[in-house]
Amino acid sequence: MNKNLNANQVLIVDDEQSIRDGSERILGRMGCEVLTAGRGEEGLNILKKQPVGIVLLDMKMPGMDGMEVLQEIRKHYPDILVIVITGYATVETAIEAMKRGAYDFIPKPFEPDQLRIVVNRAQEKLKLTQEAEKAKIARRRTMLDLDTEKSRVRTIIESLPNGVLVTNAKGQVVLMNPACRTYLGIDPNMALGEPVNAYITNEELCSLVMEISQGRHLDFDDIPTVEFVAPNEMYLLARAKPVLGDRRECLGAVINLADVTALRVLDRMKSEFVAKVSHELRSPLSTIHEQLALVITDTIDQMSQNDVHLLSRAKEKTQGLISMIGDLLDLTRIESGSVSHENKPVQLEELLQSIIDFLNTRAKTKKQTLTLNLPDQPLPPLTSDPLAMESIFGNLITNAINYTQEGGNIEVTADLLGIHIRVIVKDNGFGIEAKHLEKIFEQFYRVKTDQTRYITGTGLGLSIVKGLVDSMNGVIQVESEPGRGTTFTVLLPFNTIQKTEDGGKTISG
Fold this sequence. Notes:
alpha/beta; 5-stranded parallel β-sheet; 5-stranded antiparallel β-sheet; 13 helices; 19 strands; 44% helix; globular
């Protein structure tokens, strides 16, 4: 902990002037010294000069976005507490920010009391942590007041708002604060000393804690976080670290539990809202689309070319809206964990051939060549949801057709690679610049160039593909070069593993 950090000095990084001004007034009345920045870069420059203790950080900003700023703060100023400012539509971004080290979050729009509570909590956390660091330094100086030191540290740990659990090298629990008992629904009178699985029911977290306690993950960088549902229906985010001795020997593990129930509730509300609105819009849009098609068919001889063009564009736009609603529903289903409708053996060769036959008409209208290459021997069947498989490869092949010029070539190849079935979708189309490759799987992200600006789409297709492939324990990779084409490679294991809504896993096959 950097002892120079000032818990009363707060930096607000937000591109909205009203948020900065309002927050500055509220925090100023609390006795805080407030600094403000309208952009991420400006905020980082302030941190180089000022001993800021707390940063209020907006996730959506022009230029350097909040996630990039958070990454820089965690890298160069790990002791600063970052409170994420997030809107209703970016709940999943806030969850990701918490996983990457943000201390807390506050949703827009917020009341003054909400801001005071979350900043007060951060100030207490910072002050308590600084006290713990001072106690640690004092312990090194003298062993005379060891008992007092232990009592002081225990008091600090027990007063922390997050749950804290500590194990020894055998994975036995030796310390647990009251917040941890509350989060896990453990009787306050239950004695310590039992293995960690006597207190935590989540197998994934117990396995991770045992690995750390026994000396793995000593580098601190490759330790995954675990999110799970406690017996009291509370959503918890667990971060675990090894406890090291003076010679870097592992003495056990410390687990920090944060309550992310509010984030999950907001996430569920968002999904329910999207699903309800999508269902309400789909029926009238389908009716409008059918009526436009009927008008064009029945009266095309009586209309001018301009009228036909306008009606055709309207029909095309309604079809685009219907497709977007379908994508939103698929995305909601993936985010909720309800990926699979019905798992059954899928013969990939037959499924790919069916998709190729269906999309070949569209390819021919652009004078493109669409081919399928299959191995001489039959591929092993995949146990999965056929609709999910169709969505994966239908989206990839459709994208290849849309983003390849007239007369281009699209080649689909399926073969075996170790314990995986590999499917490659390759085109010689417009290609993608390297700067876009890391973002193309993000929701609503679209690459716009002079060649692609008139191609309609929602920007959800690749996000859906990524979500489905991840749910099957698969991998998707992309290689591309502007002007020379793009290659997507999907690797799926023979036995797919579908993730369930409660975070567990069901093995199919």
